[in-house]
Every structure is written in structure tokens, then in C-alpha cells.
Amino acid sequence: MKVKTILVSQPEPKLENSPYAKLIEKEKLTVDFRPFIHVEGADSKEVRTQKIDLSKFTAIILTSRNAVDHYFRLAEEMRFKVPDTMKYFCQSEAVAFYLQKYVVYRKRKIYVGQRLLSDLAPNFKKYKNETYLLPSSDSLKPIVPDTLNEYGINWTRGIFYKTVMSDLSDLADVYYDILVFFSPTGIESLFHNFPDFAQNNTRIAAFGSSTIQAAEARGLVVNIKAPTPETPSMTMALQKYIGEVNA
Q1: Which end of the chain is more exposed for a tag (fewer CB within 10 A), N or C?
Q2: Residue 180: its H or E element
Q3: Contact, 18 vs 190, CB < 8 A?
Q4: Residue 141 has what pLDDT?
């Protein structure tokens, strides 16, 4: 069956020349974007119940842009002035770059990994006496605490935001040829909103092994899988599939 419509379970890309825009133009598709999950911030009262005092920490471990946003939001809400001496340990260059939204980069002590938390191992070992805060969501991959514990540093997790399933009830009678997912939570949101969802002729595209496993555990057939050596991005995987079925 040919593909004419796609629903991507993420916010619409802000770049005009995004890979999706090129896919839409090349294949003459209708592609809609709708986040199946969203982030809600914890308030200062919720943070205090976790017995977290921001003034007790000398270093912050930042694994995502959400972590950056919600740390500084709560600091402002709790009237805590982040000191110039604070050290920032960023999991990736993208997170470090985003940090500039809140701090003057050249005046701060910022340590940057390439992609993984383990990239920061030399820095953690060098600054073993710091008191670290890890701002996180309510769901945390086990590899994060395992990695931090491995380095023997003094760290505390703070749940500063949570992932919430979006209300998709307005899509109840809308049909798409392909649904695109990027996380197991997105799959859960689909069935949370539509408990009786039947795949029928809908093709499922899933990015990442955990997303694929979550889809298949729900009885879905994953027709488009990424990343692969041939198609390292979701748009490339979609292009390959659509090029074959629409030929």
C-alpha cells in the first residue's frame, strides 16, 4: 500500500530545511507532528519534599536540555542565586551549548562529554570531592546511576521534571499510513489514549531498540526500523521504505 500520510510523535522541527521538509517535497506527503508525551516541571514544594537544598551542591550533572531548563527554573523559584563557582558537567556538546542560555560560558567551569556520561570519567575522577546534583526526570535509565556510582562521587538525584502522556483524544477518528515513534513512552501513550488500538494497515516506524521492543511487546508489527547501517536516521529509513512502496 502506498504511503500518503505520516504522523510523527514529536514536535515539528523548527528548521525550514529539515530532513522531513525534504521528504515531504520529494514524495508529496502529508506529514503531521504531534508530541505523544510532554514534560511537566516539578514545583519547589515537590523538590523540598526530596530534601534537596540547592545551596549544598558545588557541581551539577546535566544530561539534557530539559535538565538545564528545570534546574535554573527551580533555582529562580526557590530564590537561589547560582554561584559563579558552580561546576557544570555536561553529557554532550549540545547540552553544554544550551547552557549558554543561562550562564556566561567563558566565565564558568564547564566540562563536556562527547555523547555519553562515561566520557566525563576523567573529570569526575579529578573532582572527586565535589558535591554533585543530578537534575532528572521521574524516569532515569539505570546506566546513569550505575555510571556515577562507578566513579565513587558524592551525588544526589533530584526529580525536577516528569514525562507525561499527552491527551490525543482528538485523533480518535484520524487515520495515518505511518505512525513514527522515538521512545517506549510514546508507544505507551498510544495505548493509554487508545486502549483498543488495532494496527490494521497502519505501518509502524520505530527508532531505537528499546522503542522497537516496546512496540513489539504490545503486539505491533514494526515495518520501519532505525537506526541501521544503511539508514542511520529515521527520515532516511522512511525515505527508503516509501521509495519502495510508492514506486
Answers
A1: C
A2: strand 178-181
A3: no
A4: 83
